[in-house]
UniProtKB/TrEMBL annotation:
Entry keyword annotation includes Translocase: no
Protein name stated in the entry: GNAT family N-acetyltransferase
Organism in which the protein naturally occurs: Alteromonas portus
Family (UniProt): Belongs to the acetyltransferase family. RimJ subfamily.
InterPro entries: Acyl_CoA_acyltransferase, GNAT_dom, N-acetyltransferase
Entry's Gene Ontology molecular function annotations: acyltransferase activity, transferring groups other than amino-acyl groups
Keyword Acetylation: no
Amino acid sequence: MGDVDRLVDILNQPSVTQFLSTKIPNPYTKEDAMWWVQEGSTQGFIRAVEYEGELVGCIGVNPGNFEYERSGEVGYWLCSSYWRKGIMREALRQIIALTFSNTNIERIFACVFSSNFASQKLLLNAGFKQEAILQRAIFKDGQFYDSHIFTTLR
């Protein structure tokens, strides 16, 4: 609960939320953050990302359902003032290792907006391979984007 105000601050930064799902409310309120800390963050395999003892981001792998239960989708965000410091690359390395050692997930994938070049580069540098491009698969804020799919296997 000590990170609630920090969550609100970070998740109201347009640079951070530009390529995030609209599942994350905008504007992001204190009530949203309290729900996330108490309930939302307990679903899937989710971890806070800290730097020098301060919350700077979040990363998680959400397992699929039914015949997709052995695949998990990774998602993440990072406070913009901490970009390009290797923090998320290390968080990805750790969440992949934790997921593969503590679950039966065989495949971790990420869906990335076509114009999110930083995230595409991050995933490639973290050992993911680009698997597909789904044309006009994302519609956000009145605009279509291709969805770039990246994967890593156990």
